[in-house]
Amino acid sequence: MDSTPSPSSSSAFDLVSRALGRYIPRGGAATPAGTAEAQGDRGPRRLPENPAAGRQEQILGALNLDTDLIITRCNLEAPVFAGLDAGAGKPFVDLLPPGDVPTVTRRLRQVIESGEAHVARIQRLRRGDGSELVVSMSILPSAAPEEGLTVSVIAMARRLHLYAAETAIGTSLDIGETAQSLAESLLAWGDVAAVDLDFAVWTGEGVTGKAQGRIHLRRAALVPDRVWPEGYMTPGDDLPGDASRLLAQAVLRDDAPQTIPDREALERVFGSPRVVRALVPGDRSAGLACIPLVLDGAPPVVLGVAEVWRRADCPFRDGELFDLQELVARTAHHVDLARRHQREHTQVLALQRRLLPRTGGDTIDIASVYQPATPDSAGVGGDWVNSFPLPDGRTALVVGDVVGHGLGAAATMGQLSMEARALLSAGLAPDQVLEHLDETVTVLDDADSGLAAGYSALGSTCCIALYDPVGHHVTLSSAGHLPPILVSPDGRAGPLSIRPHPGLGAEFALREPFDVYTIGVPPGSMLAFYTDGLVEDRDLSIDEGIGRLSEVVSAVHPWDTLQQAARRIVSTLAPAPQRDDVTLLLARMIGYRKEDTATWRLPARGDAPARARTHVAELLGRWGIRDVTRDTVLLLVSELVTNAVRFAEGPVTVRLIRAGNGLLCEVGDSGNGRPRLRRGDLLDNGGRGLSIVHRLTTRWGVRWTDTGKVVWAEVAR
Length: 717
Known about the structure:
The chain is α+β, with helices and mostly antiparallel strands. The protein contains 18 helices and 25 strands. It has a 5-stranded antiparallel sheet with strand order 2-1-5-4-3, with helices on both faces. A 5-stranded antiparallel sheet has the order 7-6-10-9-8, with helices on both faces. A hairpin with a 7-residue loop joins strand 4 (132-141) and strand 5 (149-155). Helix 5 packs parallel to helix 11. The chain is elongated and about 120 Å long. The N and C termini lie far apart (108 Å).
């Protein structure tokens, strides 16, 4: 069978080729299909000299395939198809990206077998240099007596590409991904595309008006991804100061794209060899188009600059520069949205990092991990953990989960966390602190107060635990939070049995007193506090998730570094993809040694101060405390016990703790009155006890118990 039909043939290939002949601009590069020149060797093509002719640029091409899907004839002479290796005798699938080969091959075979055309499939074709061309591809069966197929391709219209690019660029709120999407879209107009953003945009900070004329640029995206020459700027690199200044001058001059036609002009403009190496992708001659990323406003703000590079023999036409400017203008607001999201994300993350525990101290070892959700989530959530030593020697462990994400949740989280810390430092018990937090959430959600601002924190959860290193126990209360996991010194682990309680801000009818639990935690025990992001999984119930966490936590060896163990637990259990923040706090109990503490229980009689001084003096002698400190402690104990006997009923408890570089003295009684420091007159005989305590100690305070109160004071050794 003759593979070259006559011009009168009515095959699909010839019909498309004749249509091509009518739409090739006069004086253009291609010649009418079907001629010897059209199917012969492709020489250098000239671009239309008439700009009006450029608007009639050919975007239609055709290929004839045999039943083995081998190209027999080809008409892809238009400049838009340059770089497609589609010669006769080559497999058609060589033009396809590897991932598309199975699907397209199946479509081609279906048309051969059924004889029914497959019309307008959006398809990518590979050029020889690795870049891609997006086309609308139709598969037509050949007319009898021919066998095979005719594939017509229409290069994606500029407007359609602009729409598709804008849609793709707006799918992420991550600044790096947004810049990368923009660079990939710009690659349709050149061989290399880069996006350089103002450093303030890259970090999410505020941007200033372009009239100031100073831009510190950082490379945010570069395509294609390949090995580049040494010294060339790749994503994450800061452009040299001279390069930033030159590009800033180019884009600040006006909002129109700026072009540099060839390497000689580039070297002349950039001047410095270092700048040329940083900005020019390779040693060959190339042309550059700079398109400013401008955010409309009064005055307009330059977010950065997009750069498109081409071989010098393919200069940019005015129509292409207009398309580049339109694409960048359409997508500049996506870059600014990503910047705003980055700023909010950074602010919330900084707040949460600020709340993370720093150190545990001598009586407890603490490690924490906070892992925010992915950047494409609605923002960082309201999870927080905190641990801090209380002035009386105990340690507070707090974990909470505020409803929602973003700045609203972060602001509430910060307020609740700081309020909890202040109340705990003032000596309130965990259940009392939760009562105050519950009232705070209720007030914040009151629309009439104007504090809610469209955000509700109702249902937020919190768990508070106080570790007593002398008694080796933890006092704990929870408001709707998942139960902590206790690991005993022998390695057994399981969640604490805590009665469920509504979250913070529950309706008045649902409010119940917060339960208080006291759990023994001998030295070597470990507690794990966490938020639901660590144990929630679509394939598991919440109880199964807590069980998995218990198993992993029980495997932590007493010799393991706690911070490394915390990271390992999170990496093992955190779901992928991560839909919520993940927070974990591990606390390993150490406590005080028996020889570092002493407790005496004395009847509330007149001789109690003298008996207390005797016991304390004997103990300080065994500890080897210097005389000056010993005298101070004896006077302090005498004053505190005297006040307890005078104003309270029932027995008085005296406890002395040797802690680090200080001595902690505690005197407990059954009274509920709060001691207050006041200024007395010179002739007053009484009321000077707390003034003496205040002058002798580095700090002192009061904490409340179920049976009364404890006045504590610290003295430097």
